[in-house]
Amino acid sequence: MSGNEDIRKNIIEATRKLIAKKTSITIRDIADACFVNVAAVNYYFGSKDRLLAIVLEEMIEEIKISIVETLNAFPKSHPVENILESMINLIYSYAIGNLGVIGYLFMNVENRELASKLFVDAFFKEGDFKQMVFHMMKEASDIQDESSLYARYIMLFSCFCIPLVIQILSDPESGSGLEVLTSEKFKQQYIEELMKMIR
What's the whole-model pTM score? Predict the structure, then answer.
């Protein structure tokens, strides 16, 4: 691997670590975290926006791949409700551990257009991921109508996002986050209630 590629990967990795915890980062934060100057970040990526786009796309794709692999590991005879519950569990755990990414996608004003596009494209545009969730929702409920499924999907997604938004607004980085949202017991209870919406 060339020295240039090493530096590029180092910048991406440092940015991933920063954005996992912070909803707003500067190019100086990135440069300091990987021990390069600001000019080096611009040289390899052109701009902070371009770098963040690469990092966020990678992280979103990784969680989607992780979800698909987890779901595909279940035997076909496994109850679909349990599979869907495992998917929600995985997403919830990932999101709580990467609140900076979630905050950036939901609430970042500086790069609103980029963040919104990444978020909508990942979870609401037509694609394999959305179709897979729709298929599981059909299997777990008696809903077959596409409009009703989409409405239920939006409701499920909205309820899923609310605890994350509360945690972001509570600023867990400064110690003012709501501890209950990160507890395993609360997570399981919350997922059980979400599953009732699908049935």
Answer: 0.76
What SS3 class is residue 157?
helix
pLDDT of residue 170: 72
Asked if residue 178 belongs to a domain, the reply is yes
Residue 29 lies in a domain: no
Number of domains in the chain: 1
- Minimal CA–CA distance to 22: which of 45, 44, 55? 55
C-beta pairs of 34-41 under 8 Å, 24+ apart in sequence: 34/7, 34/10, 36/7, 36/10, 36/11, 40/7, 40/11, 41/11
Domain that holds residue 124: 53-198
Element (H, E) at 54: helix 48-72
Is 20:26 a contact under the CB 8 Å cutoff?
no
For residue 154, what pLDDT is reported? 86
- CATH number of the domain where residue 91 is located: 1.10.357
Block means of pLDDT (10 residues each) for the chain, length 199 residues?
83 92 87 93 91 88 86 84 86 84 72 74 81 82 84 83 77 60 87 82
In whole angstroms, what is the distance from residue 102 CA to residue 108 CA? Answer: 10
